[in-house]
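Methods: example folding runs. The two proteins below were folded one after another, and each record is reproduced exactly as written to the output file, sequence line first and structure-token line second.
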Amino acid sequence: MAKTSSVQKDKKVRKTVARFAAKRKELKDIVMDQDRPIEERFRAQLKLAALPRNSSKVRIHNRCEVTGRPHAFYRKLRMSRIALRDLGSVGAIPGLVKSSW
């Protein structure tokens, strides 16, 4: 089980990303538009830099939904290999059979 503070921090970052997503997209569109004047693009770049760091999507870290573990994460299932193995052994995941020989 991951530290509770790490899991809570990641949830806070995800909330911040969601809150600033529209504003970041709007400013990035202005910055990337080559037809706009350079001064307007520069002002948009400064506004983008003034936004909180945690509002950037790359600050999100994938964590297991069950345990909060940050490593060995399967994106499709949104859980770690350990949680997947435990749930598979119990039979909680349809279609997954843990092999044993």
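Second run, written to the same file directly after the first:
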Amino acid sequence: MKVPVFPIKQSIALAAALLAAGCAAPLPALPGPDTQPAASWHAPLPHGGSVADLRRWWERFDDPLLLALIDAAQEASPTLAQTGANLADARAARVAGGAALLPSLDLAASASRERPESTAPVAQVSSLGLQAAWELDLSGANRAGRDASAARLDGASALWHEARVSVAAETARLYVELRSCEAHLAQAGIDARSRGETARLTEAATAAGVQAPSATQLARASAAEGQVALLRQQAQCELLVKALVALAAQDEPALRRQLEAATARLPEPAAIEVRTVPALALAQRPDLHAAARDVEAAAFDAAQAQARRWPRVTLAGSIGALRSSSLGVSSEGGTWSVGPVAVTFPLFDGGVRRADAAAARERYRAATAVYAGRLRTAVQEVEGAMVTLDSSARRGSVAVAAVDGYGRAYAATFASYQVGASSLFDLEDARRSLRAANSALVDQRSERLLAWIALYRALGGGWSPTDAIASSVSPSDAPTDPRNP
């Protein structure tokens, strides 16, 4: 039977005495991030009495195809798959960090058949036992590691949601750009046909001696220019369709058939309510939540690196059963041991632990700087989207009035040209003005939609910190509906 190397009470007392001078030393305080968001927004609020819940925002678009594409893109996104894997890694690290505070327990079994001497009988020996080991963590290094891994798990969960919000916003952006491109393509088609008709009429007038031959050449050049613009616009729309096919993993012929049902129709979003101050509104951004958890994890890393400069205390023990037999005689019994209590003193390591502690403090300072910078950027993104929304809304009625005015002017100039009262140069100038006004109107509507999408993304897509807690259970348990993060 084995006996303890030291009586357990005396051993622990000895370890505590040896560590009292070092491990009880307080860790240096680390400065927190200097973040002072503004007390109010310095941009026009983007709601005029009609507000929508951000969580259900995509449902409020009057376009079911957009919603279906967002669902498909999130399902096929490699970014989401990668963040899901990162979340699983963070969960495993959190389990490992908690396990470091607990004793380890192993089951050991062995069996042997031997003849130790040539004249000795054959003997059979078997044993079964439990072996335990435990680091007492008097310095707090393992506790700091556990807390750091917990913070990183929370941050990884938030980044998973951030990826979902980003994929939804990117899909919506591509869709809006495609519909805007189709609207421009429709205008380019109207313009090209009008130029072709003008060229035909001019050729007839030249043949009748009413117009000079130079007018025919100018009209033909104008018609060719219209075809070039039409073909260029068609190519841009084709590229956007290809991008949507790749992002949402769609069958291209099927997607084209779905798109044809509402060609050149821009979706109409609901308004987003932004009434809270920046500090409260930005609390729902998952990327900021993750950055804050990075700061917390870096602080625990610094505490762990500092604690590792002090001695470590470990305790081992075992209990088991032994059975042996020889010449038909067998014997069996129990064995146990407690100890040794091992105290490891770091005397000299060439400055490695000190350098690690200094590096951990610098990583903490870097994390605080990153968090503060992201907070400033977040405020800028929200206010920039609100400024763009306000500007596009103000320009809306003016853009419509410009199209109406230039349309009337072009109709009058065309009628005047047909009777010879206006030149082809006057007609082309009126046509260019009308085309520019139509393009400006499409751009204004597209810009407004893209600003709404940018605001949705800047406000975190309706995410909240409770979502990070809920999704910490399992990646498969996390919600996948983009309308309800």
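Comment on the second run: The first strand starts at residue 104 and ends at 114.
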